[in-house]
Amino acid sequence: MQMVDMFYKELEDAKKRKVPFIIPIGTIEYHALHASCGTDTMVINGVLRELEKTKEIVVCPPIWYGVASYAVGGPETGTIHVDVDAYENYIYCILKSLIYGGVKNIYCVAHHQTEEAGLMPMTLACHKAAKKVTMEFMEDTRGKGWWGSNDYADYYENLGSGDDPFSYIKVIPLMSAKCQHKIGGFDHAGKFESSLMYALYPDHVDLERTKENTEWFALNSVETSMELGQFMVKCALESLEEIIV
């Protein structure tokens, strides 16, 4: 279900049943000469499009602008970078509306700079915003000292479950570290990311232009293939099926 298509009663029902609400955490960034600048966001949208076919989820509108950084190229390349502090506050506001609105099963799914599922500025901002919202919500609704009260004597027994407040919001990569190992690699605008994009949005990858790339990170984009991309989609779906509950 796409959140923007849902009516009030459908949203309320999804909240009560703790259907996963998923926020694609994207960026607009230079992807060499052959792939569109929306790649990082679109691959998430594309995989979630497939996940919707087998799993009940609520897909929230994607966050298109993110903490891209200018590590790959400056603003002249089409990359749009949002300062990490401003971004954290923006994400905080979105998550706060959802949590205070009754959504208690949220997944922020990122693809940008998630090699080995490591933490980078954008994912760190999401983690910080999530924990800040959770702490504020628990204090506002349960009072100061909520964690130390006897009402939470079963806190450790519930870790990681739907009753654990610190599991209300999870920040996860589109491709888990396990998934990346199974595929055999991860890259930016190279054969792996380009193949993933090609399998999901073939009209957003120009195979002829892969031959024009001169930057080291995109040289092996000439090896982009539908077969590899479809395998990556399959691996991502298997991983998300397991992680998103």
TrEMBL record:
Cofactor: Zn(2+)
Annotated SUPFAM superfamilies: Creatininase
GO MF, any single term: metal ion binding
Entry superkingdom: Bacteria
Presence of keyword Hydrolase: yes
Keyword annotations: Hydrolase, Metal-binding, Zinc
Membrane-spanning residues: none
GO terms of biological process kind: riboflavin biosynthetic process
NADP in keyword set: no
Recorded family membership: Belongs to the creatininase superfamily.
PANTHER family, A to Z: 2-AMINO-5-FORMYLAMINO-6-RIBOSYLAMINOPYRIMIDIN-4(3H)-ONE 5'-MONOPHOSPHATE DEFORMYLASE, 3-DEHYDRO-SCYLLO-INOSOSE HYDROLASE
Protein name: Creatininase family protein
Source organism per UniProt: Diplocloster agilis
Lineage: Bacteria, Bacillati, Bacillota, Clostridia, Lachnospirales
